[in-house]
Amino acid sequence: MVTLITLGALGVVWLWWRDTPSVQGTGAILTNAGRILGLLAGYGFVVLVVLMARLPPLERGIGSDRLARWHANVGRYVITLVTGHVIGIVWGYAVTAHESVTSQSVTLLTSYPDVLMATVAWFLLLGVGAFSARAARRRMSYETWYYAHLYTYLAIALAFSHQFAVGQEFSAHSDARIAWSALYITAGALIAWYRFLTPLLRAARHRFTVYGAAMESPDVVSLYITGRDLDKLGAEPGQFFRWRFLTRQLWWQSHPYSLSAMPRQDMMRITVKARGDHSAALASVPPGTRVIAEGPYGAFTPALSSRRVLLIAGGVGITPIRAMFAAIPKRMSDGITLIYRASHPRDIVFRRELNAIAADRGATLYYVIGSRRDLGYDPLAPESLAAAVSGLHRYEAYVCGPPGMTEAAVKSLRAAGIRRHRIHHESFDF
């Protein structure tokens, strides 16, 4: 995937190269630097969209968790490229025209309508970037963060129009215009098919409907979803769907929730912790509510390349881990261990189910409850994990929970001798 993206970027640079016989003078250097950065930013828009188009090969092969991190990193690069493009073009034009940067900026904004549109796109991107900063995300709901991101599509449309209006690479070459248009049209078609049409077709086929709800703890609810041929969805333990509940309050937004049990032919279950308006409202969704489900997504599935499996869950991260725990075959008799980390006894969910699964498979199950201060030690430290799990370095490990816990557990497992490719992890974050 990275190689393919790099080759595409080299092709974009070639577009500039073939239309630039020579670069002489400070103004030309600055202007052409701005041109290159603008082209790369335009290409970056396509990469951003494709990474989040929910393409099955990417979702299953790379995983939504990693794709989201790539998307965030590419987003930062794109905003930097666009900002560099603005600075290079304005400064280069100013040097060439022997004017001040301020005067040249006013000239561009007042004389070229497409530049005004591009400026709006730039400010939209800066705003989306500000909303996506980690400090800002912690202070806003998922819904606010999600809908702020939709302005990116408007920014992309304005930027595309700007490139075709004044882009030297496109004004003189019809093949470049055709190729660039095809790139954007393909990205748009992938979004339309996988994020809109496919979920609607799947909902019509499987007829997802809320059967009922059960409170697992004061702030955790399980929803039971009925439908037709649910076992043919191809879901694997550890995967999730994006759910849209068709009530008056919830129909306009979809959220990712993991399966907490593998689908039967006519029933599947998700388990959700109340962390915002949407998740808190699920406990009161009435039976009979129709549902649109996108998926299954995610590469956090049991590879089972080892006969020893360690599962580590934190908080509501037990949701996909519980599905994995139940799906591990009994032939994995050399060692199955689940460590369930929680701050308080009331945060433990599925206790009876987990106990029954552990007894059925002869697995070892640890409930580690309380803060490190209360416990008097760090239960996820390398020495603590090694003491709990004999021969830890020979295990295949799966970790799911809050970002901080997941990061700490992964570092400890690496320090304990488990190879990187045998540690699989997923964090609950946006």
Please tell me about this protein's structure:
With 430 residues, the chain is of the alpha/beta class. The protein has three domains: 2-195; 207-297, Elongation Factor Tu (Ef-tu), domain 3 (Beta Barrel), CATH 2.40.30; 308-427, Rossmann fold (3-Layer(aba) Sandwich). It is built from 17 helices and eleven strands. The chain has helices at 2-18, 26-51, 56-61, 64-97, 101-111, 113-132, 134-137, 142-149, 151-166, 168-171, 174-206, 277-281, 318-327, 351-361, 372-375, 382-388, 403-415, and strands spanning 209-217, 220-226, 240-245, 255-261, 267-273, 291-297, 308-314, 335-342, 364-369, 396-401, 423-427. A six-stranded antiparallel sheet has the order 1-2-5-4-3-6.
